[in-house]
Amino acid sequence: xxxxxxxxxxxxxxxxxxxxxxxxxxxxxMGALAVRMRHLQVDQADQFRMLAEENRINIxxxxxxxxxxxxxxxxQLAKNVPSYRIVMVREDAGDFxxxxxxxxxxxxxxxxxxxxxxxxxxxxxAHFLPVTIAEDVSWDAVSxxxxxxxxxxxxxxxxxxxxxxPRGSDFAHVVGRVGRVSTKDLEALESPDxxxxxxxxxxxxxxxxxxxxxxxxxxxGTRQVEVNATxxxxxxxxxxxxxxxxxxxxxxxxxLQNYVQARLSGESAAVVILDCEKGDIIAxxxxxxxxxxxxxxxxxSKDYDPLLNNKYRPLVNKTVQGAYPPxxxxxxxxxxxxIEAGIIGPDDTVYCPGYLEIGGRRFHxxxxxxxxxxxxxxxxxxxxxxxxxxxxxKVGIEKISAMANRFGLGIKYDLALxxxxxxxxxxKEWKLRQRGxxxxxxxxxxxxIGQGFMLATPMQLAVMTARIATGREVTPRLIKxxxxxxxxxxxxxxxxxxxxxxxxxxxxxxxxxxxxRGTAYRSRIIAEGMRxxxxxxxxxxxxxxxxxxxxxxxxxxxxxxVCFAPYEAPKYACAVLVEHGGGGSVAAAPIAxxxxxxxxxxxxxxxxxxxxxxxxxxxxxxxxLRDVRPEARIKKGNDQA
Amino acid sequence: MSYLxxxxxxxxxxxxxxLYLNWPLVVLLTAVAGVGFLILYSVAGGSYTPWAAPQMKxxxxxxxxxxxxxxVPIWLWRNLAGVAYGLSVILLIGVExxxxxxxxxxxxxxxxxxxxxPSELTKITLVMVLAAYYDWLPAKKISHxxxxxxxxxxVLLPTLLVIKQPDLGTAILLLAAGGGLMFLxxxxxxxxxxxxxxxxxxxxxxxxxxxTSWQMIADYQFRRIDTFLDxxxxxxxxxxxxxxxxxxxxxxGWTGRxxxxxxxxxxNFLPEKHTDFVFTTLAEEFGFIGGIFLLVLYxxxxxxxxxxxxxxxxxxxxxxxxxxxxxxxxFFAVNMSMVMxxxxxxxxxxxxxxxxxxxxxxLMLAFGLVQSAHxxxxx
Lengths: 641, 379
Known about the structure:
The complex is a heterodimer. By secondary structure, chain A is an alpha+beta fold. Chain A is 37% helix and 19% strand.
């Protein structure tokens, strides 16, 4: 079929026209593509370039090394030790089940742990990321894994860091402990540091570890890495080193702390010893204690339940958390309020018939027969109650509480310890506000002898004693230095009280211990220049007086003793509390003498410091204590390893 | 039926034909393929494996194929058009019955020696058969309804088979190419206006029915259409691809990050970085300049094809050349619109650049036909 040339030509013209039309449309589309390309690549380039960087750059944190904690002599109280774990990279392992079973067999993993590791391995979708298959393994296990590495593809040991408390239970109530970051910890913080979200990161949970968390933790370093779309690290772009946590030195003397803790064994008790010069807390003991190392990896309930259910409450730091009626140890405050106000002179006397009758109600002295005529010194050394009832009625509760505040009672100290209790120095206004009742005269009478509403912690009683001993506003401190830099000493200003009054008070306290008729005479120190002054206290848990030996432990009186020594130039002040221990002179004062001698002699004191009659008993006690604490025999200075 | 409607005296014979090939086109095709090798080398992290080396081999084979086909007289290809079309339809049916499933769709036919993607082949054979049809059809009958219906059926048959695979991208390309060819052949514009109007009306009706009692398709189908039209509404799947693709493109800037310096593609943020999204790597590493360069190369290929077609007085050769150029245009226009976020994501590779054997060989085969038309044009 042959077409005419004319037809072919007309067809071709039409085709060419349409081809040009379609070509034009195509050119338009290509122009649009070019415009779009320009828009994306030139106009929006900056924005997309930024997005691209965000895409590929990932910032990883390098956990900082936690600061260590030392005692005042440089003995290590909290340190970091390497901890080992075994990880497996699934994509390198090949048949990860076989490899896992081999590992379990090699390092003796329990079937439960093996099962958990297998499950984690199979659930992990990012096959190139290491999965922890065994934690806290021994060095032996690490070596076993390393030696058998050829048979264990993808398995490798990793080293981390964990906290260890070499002094065990001695410092649970001072240094505290760390633990894994919990959701609660994160919620408590307003803007939690990103480092806290690192798995296995440890955070201070209580006491110094928690209160000084920010300085101990340090600052995390960062590692900028290039990652691909699945998160695999391709290379490191930049590394910025972090800052290790600061080392913290405490004011505590670890040897003394160790002795006191051993001396308190078997009791539910608390002892605080202060250095009067700067307020350094050189011993802060609460018995019973516990081993903080148990808590670090998460405590097992078989370890935790006995601690929780113990009626002696080992988890409570009684020196600052426990507020107790101070009993007769408070009498110095009542007396100081009266004599500073000029209501009574130190030599003025009060007659004690064994009771004081106020508004038809009798308030008894502990001595039914009465003490007769008593002045300040007699009243304190024989702990006459009526003398203080009389003073309190004359001076009033407001002045007594105000005086107690000046001596550090009813005040919350800023210490690096958890749950510091402020105690209580009641006032009329306080009772109305808190109880909705008006103050009655009986309340004043009870407060005068440290009963009723009056509450103080052993720490506060030690501070009170140190302030009496020095006449300065001694303020307790626990942190001696941070990274070798000592913070300024707070307080320590003169108390602005007549020195003669304070002197009479010290003399009276001296009589309590060293006068033949003093309540603590049996706990005196006879070494020259080491003599102790103090005050016993027996605070009632119940209102009715019964023989302590006939009631259950929980209802017995608390035994208290506060003291300072040497009398002539006070160096240390101490407060002892024995929960439900009975009489202060019997249960608390002997402990105070033992620990004070230990502090004064900076180690085991010579037997000559004790009264001759006590020496055999003391010798036996020290021998038993030496067994509990072998380091007692090491001379000071040799243990700064 | 005669082979010759025109004088073939001046048509070169024997090896002299080589001199009459459309050499600028050969150079342009090689240049585009060269850009492809460069990107595939870069995407593999500076390695000839796994993509650049096989692609080079395939291009070499394709080049030989093109020249061989180009030396065969065009009238032979015209006479084979019907057979080729029939064969590709049979292959499409074969895929339906024996095809291998890859990427969630049946597209491949394993012929033992190599795996064939019949839908690629169909793009060419459809153009061939339509060109032959309109070459045969007298000009007066072109717009006659009956003679319009026939080519519509010729287009719809393979299109429906391709949709069934399912490969929506290729189906749309087939429809567009078929329609384009009918337009070029001179079918009355009223038909196109009617079809476009009807299509718009149908879509409007379907969308109008959404949420009413007479809703025409299911909700999940609507959601699929939503995602298709607006990938941003599904940021985790298609939307992710488009977002990452735009990031890679945009971060290239004017001059790009430099050869082998692209971060997005190397770090696997880009999906299909060596196939459908290969353009993003080019744009990231060579920037706007590189992108425009490739676009200009493509444009020149189209321009040379269209020029060759207009020069060619043979109706079959002219239509064939234009159809192949249109096909080629649709390929890269759809691909580039897709990676630049202007069109829905459909599986269309960047011609001659994307890694892939079937597409490359079929394209070179098509350009062989263009060469044959060019060499054997009446003078």
